[in-house]
Amino acid sequence: MNQRKGLIMREIRLDEMAQSIDLLNYVFQMSMSIHKDRRFVNAKSKQFDEGHAIGWFDGTQLVSQILSLPFEVNVHGRIYEMGGITAVGTYPEYSRHGLMESLIMECLQRMRNEGQYISYLFPYSIPYYRKKGWEIMSDIVEFQVKDTQLPHYAGLNGKIRRVDPKHEDVVTIYASYAQKTHGVMVRNSIAWNEKFQEDFWEEKFIDSDVNLQAAVYYDEDDVPQGYMFYRIMEENYYIDEIVYLQEEARKGLWNFVSAHSSMIYNAYGKTTGNEAVAFLLEDSEIIQKVSPYFMARIVDVKEFLLRYPFVGNDFQLRLAVSDRIVAWNNGTFVITVKEEKVSVDKISDTLSENAIHLTVQTLATMLLGYKRPSYLEKIERLQGNAIEIALLETVLPVGIPTFIDYF
Q1: Which of 126, 309, 345, 399 is the most buried (most CB within 10 A)?
Q2: Binning pLDDT at 50, 70 and 90, where does residue 104 land?
Q3: What pLDDT was estimated at residue 35?
Q4: Per-residue pLDDT reduced to its tens digit, 243-290
Q5: Model's pTM, two decimal places?
Q6: What gap in Å lies between CA 207 and CA 264, rounded to an integer?
Q7: What are the angstrom distances between the C-alpha of 142 and each of 12, 183, 275?
Q8: Which residues is 8 bridged to in the sheet?
Q9: Could you tell me the end-to-end alpha-carbon distance of the chain, in angstroms, rounded to an integer?
């Protein structure tokens, strides 16, 4: 329990959930019906029970809060435990007193203690979270395809079945997808209890007023290879999520959308920024918008690097990392890879001159592959010896993160 200016920092109890929702409603000016608000409260209460909900209290009044949740993500083929940040908010009259920064520091300490060496969040202010050590790691594509632009692919031997969104084949497809896709959340995480896994799938689209539908593509051997979550509203088709394990499944799912052409005027959708939606369509003159989506932060530099899947062998690099929020990440780290074994030593709490210099947020976007070292040097987010930067470019795996979840 921490104290500051007559305030107390402590865990938020489940019987204080109403205060938490009131704070979120005020800060984000949510406009929800009673029914939707009840569903939102139920969803958040389950998350509060699973994660760490921490707040500052003025007497019995909750005035600032943060929630961290236990997830797992795939980072270039390695599964990392990840701390997901959500439900962040402070009443305006209590802002500019460092309350949120202290909550973030407490969350990072707890993540570190629990082996969550990376953190994701959806930013309501990118500049704010950059100052706290997070950086952009994924994009989202929103698109509109006219009914006359919908594709049709011939020669497919599989078939589509409409199923319940929680059908076991949907879960199976996603599990395979998560094992081979860099950046994504592992929804069947061993870090979760079985009930939390079920709740996560059930509540993924809890904000919807329209029943979510699902379609699964099966190949000619009746093996599920892809799925799509969708809705049909006011003569338009909305794609909420499309996941496929092979190209045939992608084509089959788009054929399913095309089969609705007599019912709709447009197909709207959103997907990962790695998906070349326009390029893959015969008529590529669609409306498409790419936006920054999630941000990531390295919670513990040394421990994250120890598990990182470097490419190549027998090399050594020095990184001088600055982190204005937590002291344990400040300093110079020596990475040595020899005979496929990675060792990381923090040789100094200061930033050595003979090292590659970067901030913890630049380190996150670089190691996750959203931006490469050569580009980061070009825009002056990374400085160092040209030979060492060239080496860094070769030993980092290639691949931009995919992230399609929200919490």
Answers
A1: 399
A2: very high
A3: 39
A4: 999 999 999 999 999 999 999 999 999 999 889 999 999 999 999 999
A5: 0.91
A6: 23
A7: 36, 19, 11
A8: 3, 57
A9: 27
